[in-house]
Every structure is written in C-alpha cells, then in structure tokens.
Design brief:
Layout: E1 4-6, E2 13-24, E3 40-48, E4 54-56, H1 62-65, H2 78-94, E5 102-106, H3 114-119, E6 123-127, H4 131-139, E7 144-145, H5 151-161, E8 164-170, H6 179-189, E9 190-201, H7 203-207, E10 221-222, H8 225-234, E11 237-245, E12 251-258, H9 266-278, H10 283-309, E13 314-317, H11 321-330, E14 340-341, E15 359-360, H12 362-367, E16 372-375, H13 381-387, H14 389-393, E17 397-400, E18 406-407
Parallel strand pairs: 5-6, 5-8, 6-7, 8-9, 13-14, 13-16, 14-15, 16-17
Antiparallel strand pairs: 1-2, 2-3, 3-4, 4-10, 9-12, 11-12, 17-18
Helix pairs in contact: 5-6
Bound molecules: ligand DWN and zinc ion (ZN).
The site of zinc ion has 8 residues, from loops.
C-alpha cells in the first residue's frame, strides 16, 4: 500500500511518490571520531492531493539539522557571491528606499546577501540557527540573531525593531516544516505594503529536471506556483511575482504581498499556465520520475564499479548536501569513491554524511588528479570546469548524473 501522511500546509492527503531510503542529515559533516553521532531517518517525497505541495514524508528535528556539524557556507562559490550581490542591489534600489528601511533575512547563513545591505548602511537583521555560519556572518559585520524564525521570534523582532519592509529567504523557507508558524510570523513582522521574497528549489526541476538530489532532510518542501498560491491565500497574502533563478539547478523566486496591496505581474499567470500544462501531480509523471531516478542510481553504480574493476582512479568533486542523498541512495562509499574534494575549510578533514567518504581540499585533488571525477556540485559546473581546466587537458573526465548519467 502507498504510504500516506497529512499535508503540513492544508491537512490534505500526501501520497508517497519517491523513496530514497535510509539517509543521514545531509549537512552533518562529522569528524572521523564522531561517526557514532550520525542520526538516520527515512527519506521519501510525496505529493498533496489537495494543494499539490511536494514534500517530505518524514522529517528530522530542526535542532538536529543545524548542529555544529552544519558546514554549508552560502558564499562558497563565485556564482553565489555575485547572485546575492545582485539580489541585494535590486532590493536596495526598489524596496529599501524609504527614510529608514528595514530588511530581515530568514536563514542568512554566512551573511553573503546581508553583507551588501550592511555596507549600504541599511537596517537589517539576519536570523540564523546554525551557530558556525551565524558567527561568520557576525564577523563580516552583519547583525544577526542565532535562532529559528517562527511566530514568537517575529513578535520579539517587531517589538524591538519595528515592521520589516522586506522579509527575504533563499533556500530556507522550504526547510521550515511549520508553515503556519512561518506565515503567522511573516504576517506579524511585515509592514502593510512590504514584501516577502523567497527563492527555493522548484518542484519542476526536481521532478522533470530529474534533480532528485535536491531532496534531503533540510528541504521539507519543493514549491511551485500552484502550491505557493495556495499557501499565500491561506494566510491572507497574494503571489505578486515569480522569477526563474539558476543557482542550484533551477529555482523559483516568489514575491508575496498582503492580498490586494500590489498588482500581480504577468509572470505569475504565465508560470501558472506552464505548470498546468505539465501537471506535476499526474501519477504517470511521478511514476516515470521514480523509475528514472532508480535508473540513474543503477547506471551510476554500474559505471563506478566498472571503472574501479578496470583499476581506474575515481573520486568526487564537491561535498554538497545533494551528494549525501546520492551517495546514500546509491550505496556509494569509499570503496567506489576513495575521497571527494571540497573548497569549504569546515568540511575538509571530515566525512561525508552516511557514506563516510573522506573530504580533502582541492589542493590535494590537484596534487594527484584522479582519472574520473563525479561532479557532485553539478550546479556549479561552469565555474568548476573552468577552474579545473588542467584536469581535463590531461585527458581526465567528469561524470555527471543529472538529468542522467554521462561522462563529459
Ligand atoms: O539549499 C541549500 C543550498 C542553498 O545550499 C542548503 N540546504 C544547503 C546547500 O546545498 P548544497 O550543499 O547542495 O549547495 P552547493 O552550493 O551546491 O554546494 C556546493 C559545494 O561544492 C560546497 O560544499 C562548496 C563546493 N565547491 C567546491 O568545492 N569548489 C563549490 C565550488 C563552486 C567550487 O569551485
Ligand atoms: Zn496540501
């Protein structure tokens, strides 16, 4: 029988559509001496038959996800730095223009976006539950509080700082399982004509784009225009703009305002029609998705096994959260990939969650190039391939697996 759960947003019935098996918390990069602290859960995605929201069937507690072992630094790529600078510049030019504007970022990570806001002298507050990255944000001069966002924190912030003109989140709103607490918090904190802007993994990229590795414990939801419209309406808001973003393989940026306050852009209706045409809730589409994801697993494992059997030297590049899903779903451990390299200092010397593949620095990778490298950070492919030109010039090859397994 297909497993079911109650929708976290509308209390409708969520039907399981993809099972990715036993998985650890995706960003829990433990040192070798602490592997006994690894906590596992069941990773599976389902679709709500009422509001269409794609979501996890089970979740890990928030407190467990953002422990000291949380090592992701949002400023870790040139592409991300430029992207967040553009976001800040636009908000400064279009929204933060009043006498004393105020912006709040939910999950500001290492402050990569708020850094530009702080340098412009604009009042801001970052809310970041992961202590390690919150400290990095503070060190670069960003004002932060080290906690989770919810209704009670919104009440406190409003009392201390007043209403926010902009509430912003990037890849963080999808991780707040308590949608009611989130939206009540936004309602409390946002000014009468303010906007709530959030950019998040797009259900269409995950399903039809086959980016199944976006599914991990941090991402409780995979939004779409249809599900965000349902969410907005439920809490007295309206979706007034939608834009495509390409930092993590294909996200959507949603702008919500209080219902009736702003005129929705033409992009909202256009994207809504596009979604109706492909219908991501169609059981046949979802079955094909699950079959394609299992094919990817079989093809990737077969390729790595045959390379190893031929005595080829193989490794991984990047230890993103996405790689946790792939390695654990595929059963890829140090026998198939002896190491991965990653530029994040806080991940080096630690182990990939669950698979326990050691993480080394890119310098160690360059010292002795492997012949084949699985590009786990495939969303940064252009930047990485350009940076590692010498690797390819020597005849070595990259392996990618989204949308399907290929050697490039
Ligand atoms: O949604 C989320 C996004 C925003 O960030 C979070 N839940 C967690 C995280 O996801 P991710 O870990 O999949 O993000 P990235 O940006 O795809 O991670 C890339 C990884 O690759 C980082 O660990 C840094 C590393 N990297 C590298 O070693 N060399 C990246 C580049 C560009 C490089 O040149
Ligand atoms: Zn629902």
């Amino acid at each position: 029988m297909t497993p079911l759960r109650t929708c976290r947003m509308c209390q409708g019935s969520v039907r399981q559509v993809l099972d990715l098996g036993r998985q650890p918390s995706a960003n829990a990069f433990l040192p070798p001496a602490a592997v006994a602290d690894e906590v596992y859960f069941h990773l599976a995605a389902g679709v709500c038959e009422s509001c269409t929201l794609l979501q996890l069937m089970d979740e890990t507690p928030q407190g467990l996800r953002y422990r000291d072992s949380y090592r992701y630094e949002a400023s870790g790529s040139k592409g991300a730095q430029e992207h967040f600078e553009r976001v800040a510049d636009r908000l400064l030019a279009t929204e933060l223009t009043g006498a004393d504007p105020f912006i709040v970022e939910i999950g500001c990570n290492d402050g990569v976006m708020l850094d530009s806001i702080a340098r412009a002298g604009v009042r801001h507050l970052g809310i970041e539950p992961a202590k390690g990255v919150a400290d990095l944000a503070e060190a670069r001069g960003v004002t932060i509080i080290n906690e989770f966002f919810g209704h009670s924190s919104a009440v406190d912030i409003r009392q201390l700082h007043g209403a926010a003109d902009v509430i912003y989140g990037a890849n963080t709103i999808c991780s707040i399982a308590d949608i009611t607490g989130l939206m009540r918090g936004v309602d409390t904190l946002l000014s009468a004509d303010g906007i709530f802007v959030f950019e998040e993994p797009y259900a269409d990229t995950v399903v039809r784009g086959r980016a199944f590795d976006q599914i991990y414990d941090e991402h409780v939801f995979y939004f779409s225009v249809r599900s965000v419209e349902a969410m907005a309406e439920r809490f007295g808001f309206e979706l007034v703009d939608v834009e495509h973003v390409a930092q993590h393989g294909g996200e959507l940026r949603y702008t919500l305002a209080r219902a009736g306050v702003r005129t929705p852009s033409a992009a909202v209706l256009k994207q809504w029609h596009a979604e109706m045409e492909v219908d991501l809730t169609d059981p046949a589409t979802l079955q094909q998705w699950s079959a394609a994801v299992h094919d990817t697993r079989d093809n990737l494992v077969a390729l790595l096994r045959s390379l190893r059997a031929d005595g080829r030297r193989v490794a991984g590049y990047g230890a993103p959260a996405k790689a946790t899903t792939v390695t654990n779903f595929c059963g890829i451990g140090p026998d198939l990939l002896p190491f991965v390299c990653d530029s994040t200092p806080g991940k080096q010397g630690r182990l990939m969650p669950g698979s326990h593949i050691p993480i080394v620095s890119p310098g160690a990778f360059r010292d002795d190039y492997p012949e084949f490298v699985v590009l786990f950070a495939w969303n940064h492919a252009d930047e990485i391939i350009a940076k590692e030109q010498a690797f390819r010039e020597l005849g070595n090859k990259w392996i990618v697996y989204v949308p399907e397994v290929r050697i490039i």
